[in-house]
Structures are given as C-alpha cells and as structure tokens.
Amino acid sequence: MEDFALLQTDEIAAFKSLGTGQVSDAMEMLGLRRAVISGFRFVAPPDTNMVGTALTIRQAPKHHPAEKSERLVKHGEVAASMAKAGEVIVIDACGRTDIGTWGENHSTRCLSRGVAGLLVSGCIRDAASIRKFGFPVFCLGFSPIKSQWDLETVAINETVTIADVQIRPGDIIFGDEDGVLVIPFDVRAEVLAKATDIRRREESDNPLLTAGR
Fold first, then answer.
1. Which of 100, 184, 198, 199 has its Cα between 20 and 30 A from that of 124?
2. Cα(123)–Cα(138) distance, integer angstroms
3. Residue 208 CB burial class (10 angstroms; 0-12, 13-18, ≥19)
4. Among 6, 21, 12, 11, CA closest to 209
5. 15 pLDDT exceeds 70?
6. Which CATH class is domain 36-182?
C-alpha cells in the first residue's frame, strides 16, 4: 500500500485550534473548489474536532458466488494494522443505513495506534462506547447489523466519493460538529495561514471569544 505524507505535529495543532467555519471561509477566499460534507452525525465527546490524512476504503455489495457468512470486508485489518497514526480512515460504504460498517473493537484498535478518526458513508454500531472512548467518528447513523453479511472491500487507498465530494488518499480530513472539510494536502499551508488570520480577526472583533482561553 502506497505511503502518503502525514501532517506534522505543529500542523495538527494549528488545525485543532480552528473551527470548520474558519477553514471553510479560508478555502472560499482562496478560490479553492468547495469540498464540504454536511449532514453526517458526529460521534465524539463535546468540544472535539478531527484532523488527519485520508486512508480510503471502498466497499461494494457482495458479488456472486460469495456466501453470506464469508468475511470479505477488510476495514478490520485496516484498523488493526494498516492505518497509521495521524490518518483518518474514510470508508465509502455505499450509503447503506441498514447495516453497521464500524464498531467498538475497530475504534479501540485505532485509538491504541494513534489513528485520528473515521468518516464513513454508512452506519456504525456500539456508538455509546465509541463516544465514551473518545474516538471521533462521522457517520450516517446507527445499526446493530454488521456489514460482513452484505458487503465486501473492493479497493484500499483509491479515490472514493462521499456525499458527492471526491476524496483522494492523503487528502486532509478536518471535521467538527458543523461538518467535514476535504483539503488537498498541497494547499494546507495557505489554508492554515488564511484560517488563522480569520480566527485572529474574529477574536479581535469579539473579546468574548477569548475570555475562556
């Protein structure tokens, strides 16, 4: 599997100090193509955001002659060994809301290895435990039925589309309660500089924003 560049510690801290509104405004001002994913549920403790580089997985309905019980999904292996610290796992799960593509065990494995979070165009299960552990997840909803029975993995680290937004391996995934942004890796410095300037101007205009810091 091809390796992609990861964000540096100072870049992660810079994103963590921002909100998606500020970063979205920065991208608009820079004339970048809009890449916003909204309407997903954010399973995370309060005042949490998520940032990392995308490791992508594409699922598809099982193809004949695969048996129902045959395990052909690979996101468990990605969570256990393939995903690196600082990456966000991005799963195209066909928009399925009747089955759960992710659960507690996947999340704890990722947490122990520093994986930054999950974005899935499908459902998860064990939501209460995942929220308690503090592993940030964006999903369409919840279902107790695991995806093994219905889906198979057809690609890892290839381009996927989530909510009409193209996501390439190595893109930056940045999200909070307002939504998710997909930021091309090679424009991160310009986006961070512009968004940081926006935040500073907002704080200067409204002292209440800095009162609790």
1. 184
2. 9
3. exposed
4. 21
5. yes
6. alpha beta
